[in-house]
Amino acid sequence: MKFGFNKLVIVAAGLVLIGGCSESKKTQDAQSSSEATQSSKPSHDGSWHFKVGQRVTSKGPSKRVELQNRILTAESQCVAASSGKTSIYVSELDSKNPVVENNRVQRSASVIKIFIMIEAFRQIKTGQLTLNQRVIIPTDDRVGGTDELANQNTHQLSVKQLLRLMIRNSDNTATNVLIDKLGGLAVINAEINRLGCSHTKLRRKMLDYRALQNGKDNVTSVSELGKTLMALSGHRLLGHPYDSEMLQLLRYNSNQSKLPALINRKAVIYNKTGEFPDYGVQNDAAIVKKGKRAFVVVVLSENGTQQKQINAMQMLGKRLYSIFFS
Q1: How far apart are the C-alpha atoms of 149 and 66, rounded to whole Å?
Q2: Exposure pattern of 8-40 as b/e (b: 16+ CB <10 Å)?
Q3: Do residues 108 and 325 lie in contact, with contact meaning Cβ atoms separated by under 8 Å?
Q4: Pairing mode, if any, of strands 156-158 and 134-136?
């Protein structure tokens, strides 16, 4: 099966890319995918583009180049083993040189909930909201999918309880209630824009099939998710104690079936998955820490076969653990 994918590897020394999501001045349609240019010349932002089969070459330290090439190999193996369209972002926490393959706009599924969580904590930080504040659960917001709340006779919960359900259990009803409480799609998108994420869009509530039929879906890219997790892991997103509280929510995510599945349990993993089987979507975004070292990995895969996608993510997680921690 031919993929025609290109590799984007950021190798320019001194380029600082981890303070937010900004990666491109172009907006892209939700259903489109923008391939990296097939060139070995640096782009306007200092990024380097590689054709399939190319390896990183640099005058920098040989260990860094070797590390990047090992990551590239692991990413290529994941893309080859997956089906459909697969994008990958990998970066060590203190690195300015993430290794990115096939960066483009893709369906986000539930990984968009990371950005909803960030807006909730921004409002908590500014005093607009409190974790203990009670929120009424409207009937209109009750939907299915991965929901516990939809089937419970619960009429109100605290913001803290809603956040825990949204992140740890990927509860869609809790997510829809939070979207309303935070002020709607426009408010959350304003925070996404403030983070510098031009490709990430919250265009509908969870399981809004009417919006989907009208071509409105939630989208993001591996680079924007990756840079957001880099900032969160480094406590540079909203600062203390808000970043720590968000990390704790991600740490106890109930779905560990993808990137974390084959990783040694001595590592601490903070992740959020997303899946939308109707469109062949399987996503995972994770921070993996062991001791003083950590890395961020994001995989977005759509129009694929579920088991192939999940198996490929599991092997990528295992290979990256070996690369960084062995």
Answers
A1: 48
A2: bbbbbeeeebbebbebbeeebebeebeebeeee
A3: no
A4: antiparallel
Token digits of residue 258? 């993808």
Tell me the C-alpha to C-alpha distance, in Å, between residue 5 and each of 34, 200, 302.
11, 21, 14
Query: What's 223's DSSP letter?
Result: H
Indicate left, alpha or beta for 317 from its phi (over 0: left) and psi (-120 to 50: alpha). alpha
pLDDT tens digit at each of 326 positions of the chain:
443 434 444 433 333 333 456 544 443 443 333 333 333 333 333 333 344 445 555 555 688 899 999 999 999 999 999 989 999 999 999 898 999 999 999 999 999 999 999 999 999 999 999 999 999 998 887 786 556 776 677 889 999 999 999 999 999 999 999 999 999 999 999 999 999 999 999 999 999 999 999 999 999 999 999 999 999 999 999 999 999 999 999 999 999 999 999 998 889 999 999 999 999 999 999 999 999 999 999 999 999 999 999 999 999 999 999 999 98
- Exposed, middle or buried by CB within 10 Å (0-12, 13-18, 19+), for 305? middle
- Taking the C-alpha atoms of residue 212 and residue 115, their distance in angstroms, rounded to an integer, is 20
